[in-house]
Amino acid sequence: MTDEYNWDAIRALGRRVLEGAVPLELTADVRAILFRTAREVAISDADVAQALMSESGAKDLLRESIRRISDGSRRLTRALSRMYDHQRAGDYDSARQQMRDVLSTEVVPLYREIAQEQLDDMADDP
Questions:
Q1: Are 43 and 107 in contact (CB under 8 A)?
Q2: Which residue among 4, 22, 47, 79 is buried most deeply as judged by most CB within 10 Å?
């Protein structure tokens, strides 16, 4: 599952470009990184194609991709922590609710998959 996701390239690109160290050059490699990451964070190909028509659109796409990765990661991490706390307390309904809450708002497929797996793992819990 997580082996297929490697967001180091998009993060590195974001650090260089969004902090102003280098301009965003839409090379074939950069386009590939943006397209791949956008798919991984549930941004449509049509939206990507539109964004790549301008440098400002490409920067917005870069920014949004990184935001989805970061926000989703924080949201899932906090929910998992609360879920484990509820499990330790024996409150499996509240533990399950933490994952349902993630699923109700999260768009990144990887994070949704993790939340669903956690929810599925608790199916037999009281």
A1: no
A2: 79
Q: Per the structure, how many domains does the chain have?
A: 1
Q: Across residues 13-20, what is the average pLDDT?
A: 93
Rounded Cα distance between 81 and 95, Å, is: 10
Q: Which domain holds residue 113?
A: 2-121
Cα angle vertex 38, ends 33, 44, to 5°? 135
CA-wise closest residue to 110 among 76, 67, 66: 76
Tell me the per-residue pLDDT of 45-67, one tens digit each, with 9 for 90 and over: 999 999 999 999 999 999 999 99
Residue 126 lies in a domain: no
CA-to-CA distance for 122 and 95, rounded, in angstroms? 8
